[in-house]
Amino acid sequence: MKKLLFIDCCIRGEASRTRKLAEAFLSALPQEYDAEWLDLGTAEIRPLDRARYFAREKLLDEGKLADPLFGYAKQLAEADVVLVATPFWDMGIPAMLKTYLENVSIAGITFSCDEEGNFTGLCKAERMILLTTRGMEIPDGSEMEQATPYLKAICKFFGIGGFETVSAWGMDVVPPEEAEKRLLCATTSARELAQSL
Ligand SMILES: Cc1cc2nc3c(=O)[nH]c(=O)nc-3n(C[C@H](O)[C@H](O)[C@H](O)COP(=O)(O)O)c2cc1C
Predict the structure, then answer these.
(1) How far apart are CA 51 and CA 116, in angstroms?
(2) Residue 168 Cα: closest atom of ligand 1
(3) Of 131, 137, 132, which Cα lies nearest the Cα of 172?
(4) Percent helix, strand, coil in the chain (nearest 5)?
């Protein structure tokens, strides 16, 4: 079986439009995939405050990569496909997702650095797929859209070669029927993308 890691940042749960894209995607996932659900809304993932930062540095200095603190990094490194579903917040990603990424950015697990300062990604996944919805009229590729460029950079850093975004935008500003139409269109794209895996 191949492993798909579903990083779920759909904070509004059942009410989330982005979650609908994720549900469509997962419902069309080929049988050889096993989806592992990581719900960032309930996971014990905390920002690196001073105490956590130094505790983590100590473990890294001691080479203790088997510590449970690095479990999420290992889970990401071992996934064959990474699916991220997140609403668009403040021109980028919610802090919860950024916090997750800080927690999984671990030398020796998701990336490595040699003595000459060359970085190499260590993640096995060939692609990351971003499912997202935006409230304002901010289309893909807009300079106001900073979620995709940031996640693309993270993928490059972690060695994840491919990146695709499926989105619907204008959700909070266009008439409800139009928002529904756009969401439906993105839902179809999400389903087709899953089928093509
Ligand atoms: C805290 C917060 C910040 C947001 N920031 C933006 C933003 O910067 N740009 C934008 O287009 N929409 C923004 N929105 C609107 C959401 O992107 C939009 O409602 C989206 O469809 C929510 O996804 P969901 O239904 O999956 O929760 C924001 C919403 C919230 C709650």
Answers:
(1) 30
(2) 21
(3) 137
(4) 40, 20, 40
Residue type for position 122:
L
**Average pLDDT of the chain to the nearest whole number:** 97
154 by DSSP, 3-state: which? helix
Q: How far is the CA of 107 from the centre of ligand 1 (A)?
A: 32
- pTM of the prediction? 0.97
Q: What is the rounded distance in angstroms from the CA atom of residue 153 to the CA atom of residue 132?
A: 17
Give me the residues paired with residue 166 across strands. Answer: 131
**Cα of 129 to ligand 1 centre, how many Å?**
19
CA distance 147 to 155: 12
Mind listing the pLDDT tens digit for each residue in 130-144?
A: 999 999 999 999 999
CB-CB neighbours of 12 under 10 Å: 11
What's the confidence (pLDDT) of residue 40?
97
Give dist(CA 90, CA 74) in Å, integer.
29
Q: What is the CATH number of the domain that holds 123?
A: 3.40.50.360
Percentage of the chain beyond pLDDT 90 is: 99
Domain tally, the chain: 1
The residue whose CA has the least distance to atom 4 of ligand 1 is 89
- Bridge partner residues of 3 (DSSP): 34
pLDDT of residue 170: 98
Range of the domain at 105: 2-195
